[in-house]
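Q: Entry one of two.
A:
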Amino acid sequence: MRTILIGLSVPVALSVLALTVGAAIYLNNEPDQARAETTSSRYELDGDQVDVETNGAVDVKVKRGDGTGLHIIRTLRWTGNRHHSESWSDNRLTVSFDCERACSATYEMSLPQTTRLVVNGKPS
């Protein structure tokens, strides 16, 4: 009887060990590491107003300057899988950003002094 208990406990112990190791590998897997990416874009303006529509964890910061056009420096931070989309048409920038956890997108926008900026329907 004791042999049967020992025989049963070894496979159970091995199963627990395998699950523990598997969980540790999964939790330390590269896709779950925090990541960051900084990129930039420049868009030509056609008019004196830029409309920005955001969805998700997107923060817009504005810097006024003497240049022409819209210059964007975007910094994305995320953990796990992410979804980021951006489109520019008719002086309208549409941005969407989300991820599994701990994500943010910062859009630093440089605009000419005379260009109005409207973010999610509100003047900025």
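Q: Entry two of two.
A:
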Amino acid sequence: MQFRQQALAKLQSPEDLDLPVRFARPQGWLVLSVTVVAMAAASVWALTGSVTSTVGAPAVLTYGQGSYVLQSPVAGQVTAVLAKEGARLPANAPVLKVRTGEGDEVVRTLDAGRVTALAASTGQIISTGANVAAVEKVAGAGARSARRCTSPPGAPPASPRTPPST
């Protein structure tokens, strides 16, 4: 009980009323002031700052079906380039004409797609398996070009010819 008596005596004595009350040590005030400054800076940034939502990066956009490199099945001299870069071609479309020892051969696409690069040019000598074009597979590439070739826009679809009956 001795401690309690000293605390009560200290509270009742009027001699310490003129002294300021000490709430925290100087280290505590330092921590408090740093925290207040950090919160103020965060509040200012939250109201006026911004975060960039787009990023610029070099890239190549492709279709989900992928792409393939078209290789020549024959060796010879390229006599004609039948496709242009950027052209959409149906499956089995002619890309090059190659003159071989047995005659002219046509190099054709494997799947429908868009020609992204042509590595062969007219007059060039190519060997069997040489890369001649890069083709990006595109769904419906052949349907569009076939529709364009067979009938004008707005015309009804062409029907197969039937021999006249007698």
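A: Comment on entry two: The chain has a mean pLDDT of 80. Residues 67-149 form a domain with the OB fold (Dihydrolipoamide Acetyltransferase, E2P) fold (CATH 2.40.50.100).
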